[in-house]
Amino acid sequence: MTAISSTITRPLARRWRHVIAIGALGAAVALYLALVGIVPTFEARAMISSVLALGETFVLGTMMVIGYLAARYFDGQPAMSVLAGAIAGLMTGSALTLLMLIGPAIDLRSIFLNASDSLYGVLTLGRGLDFLWIPMVGGVVVGALGGGLRILPRPIQKSIAAGLLSLVALGLFSNLLRKPLLASPFASIGRLLFASEGLTLFGAAVTLSGALGAGIGGAIGARFGSRRWGMLTGVALGMIGSLVIGLLAADLAPSALARPEFAALGGVLGGVIGVGMGGLLGGAIARRVSSLRLDRQFDALPSPARSAIRATPLIPLLFLVLVLPFAFGQNFAQVIVLVAIYILMGLGLNITLGLAGLLDLGFVAFFAVGAYTVSLLTSTSPFGIADFSWWIAVPFAVGVAFMFGAFLGLPILGIRGDYLAIATLGFGEIIRILSVSDLLRPWLGGPQGITNVPKPFDVPPGDPLSGPSQIYYIALICAGVIAFIAFRLRDSRIGRAWVAIREDEDVAEALGINLIQTKLLAYALGAAFAGLGGAVFAALIGATFPTSINLLVSINVAALIIVGGMGSVPGVIVGAVVLIGLPELFREFQEYRYLFYGAALMVLMRFRPEGLLPSRSVQRELHVEENVEPAGAPVGSSVAQIEAEREGDVERDSPYSEPPAKETP
Q1: Which of 6, 11, 92, 580 has a CA that sits 20 to 30 A from residue 658's CA?
Q2: What's the CA gap between 229 and 281, in Å, rounded?
């Protein structure tokens, strides 16, 4: 009996050790967020007005994630999952309580400047050190919620996670979204959805209704017809129902003070009704579409007609792109221009690194060549050598950058791997040093750079296109054209040659690929794309300064390719938006910008190494299931045999077949 009980106890004890380790990790993360100043600094940014701030979101989010992770060791045991999440959350909250208990006693602020009364006020919800128990109780409750989330079906889990992330995203972008709504005929709706800082309770209810509509509506739709249609109609009707019933509830409120609360309650009720109706409607639509056989009718259409139908959703997207600078302001337009410039450089490095596998850490040099070429040819300062317009100077900038790319490629054709990265890094540093040197000061202006670079269009100061708006449209057009060229190059013969070189240079050469020409073309084309980005940057700033030429630019371009997906053109765009656009919109948190930048990169490389939007080939390489031949199978058995085994179409004595189940009397 003792042996049997010890055998049962050991796995259980091992599970609890994992739970305690997860709780200790949560305690360390919570203490780190508190002591480095993230919690008190971000407390000034509201997520849900008068309810939840960003600093509190970090603490609560840590507790919920830790509770969710701890509960995975008790999958299939709902009560134990919730208990494990509560214990891990308790450990996380207890660390914060211990911090407030010993911090004032030992003068912890002499070591950690952020261990101040403002931090303790955030952790106790403004009630002071007499309420030290608040983080512990909050940890138990939120950790248990995280454990309870693990119990739910996977689609519901994903929809709740999407809803919580949507709350954070809309809370962060509330100021940006509120402005165009207030200037539109929907100003009253904008005031109900967004406060001056963050979302309102009603806005949070509408957001959660839409997110939950994806999971719950999809589950209902799958039961009655189609999960996809259930998700679409669940999201749409969830948000519409929440919005409509919330507005009606606000109008029926007995007083103006109760209007926000009535709107929030109505939003929750409307969301529940809308999600249920959306799931049922999605199932009905799916059955109707299936009965009409629209997919066969679509396949029977001519190819141009199918292409036109697929492109129809792009029309409202194009309209949105056209009005963005006027709806969100010039600052937002400037951020989009920076994103487009990095897309141009990313598409260039994607040829060199993503397709050809040639790591170039001096890529900023080609960007500098394009910027300086345009500045020299167009500037009205003493350093200008010609009175060209920007449009005439751009082809020269692209051509000069192209030649510099070929010039760089010649001496390093035989270098591979880490040595190639060091060599290209040296080239970039040479360009940076020359730009500030006394040797080229009479031509490039030295540290002062070249100023007075005119805009592409000469418009009066009050014109809507006088600011970054005109560069916004030019940058997007350039990015679109270069993206199209990159798409065509990737699928062309030269693109396949680059991929072959990336996989194995020796084999590629044995197959007849000219390594010298192919590598030089990769360097030159990548440099030309970066030179175009430099030309757009010079027009945006109106000058070119040596301070813009630094190693961090090259690292950012390489990082956005890795984050987006190696060799993927859409991945470059997504990577630029995530790594360049989002940080630019939150420059008030400049002190912690690269902390989150690095953390996001580590998490992404751990859980999605292929990137956010990888190419199909890279995704297959990283996630293909290995076809391991079982014992007794003949060497070199075909994949078809394995697939036949999976389908059950194998002989009984085959080594791929499972042993027959024993019949029970």
Answers
A1: 11
A2: 8
Q: What phi, psi does 52 have (nearest 5°)?
A: -145, 130
- Measured in whole angstroms, how far is the alpha carbon of residue 487 from the centre of its chain? 22
Cα–Cα distance measured from residue 66 to residue 64, given in angstroms and rounded to the nearest whole number: 5
What's the residue count for the chain?
665
Compute the mean pLDDT over every residue in the chain, rounded to the nearest whole number. Answer: 81
What distance in Å separates the CA atoms of residue 70 and residue 581, rounded to the nearest whole number?
A: 34
Buried b (16+ CB within 10 A) or exposed e, 496-508: ebbbbbbeebeeb
Residue-wise over 272-308: b if at least 16 C-beta within 10 A, else e? bbbbbbbbbbbbbbbeeeeeeeeeeeeeeeeeeeeee
Q: Among candidates 406, 371, 294, 400, which has minimal Cα distance to 546?
A: 371
At residue 22, what is the residue type? I
- Residue 467, CA distances (Å) to 285, 454, 464, 536, 621 in order: 48, 12, 7, 14, 46
Angle between helices 468-490 and 330-349 (to 10 degrees): 20
Distances (CA, A) of 482 to 188, 486, 529: 42, 6, 7
Return the CA Rg of the chain.
30
Q: Could you give the residue ranges of the DSSP H alpha helices within 493-550?
A: 493-503, 505-510, 515-541
Question: How deeply is 237 buried, as exposed, middle or buried, from its count of CB atoms within 10 A (0-12, 13-18, 19+)?
Answer: buried
Please, are residues 593 and 583 in contact by the beta-carbon 8 Å criterion?
A: yes
The mean-pLDDT minimum among 85-89, 385-389, 416-420, 500-504 falls in 416-420
pLDDT of residue 659: 46
Helix (H) or strand (E) holding 383: none
Provide long-range contacts, Cβ within 8 A and 24+ apart, for 592-599. 592/36, 592/37, 592/38, 592/41, 595/36, 595/38
Predicted confidence at residue 613, as pLDDT, reads 83
199 phi/psi in degrees, rounded to 5: -80, 155
Residue with the two structure tokens 């599970």: 15
DSSP state of 628: P
Query: Which string of DSSP letters, residue by residue, matches 273-336?
Result: HHHHHHHHHHHHHHHHHHHHTHHHHHHHS-HHHHHHHHHTTHHHHHHHHHHHHHHH-HHHHHHH
Question: Which candidate, 152, 159, 160, places its Cα nearest to that of 214?
Answer: 159
Note the pTM of the prediction, 2 decimals: 0.81
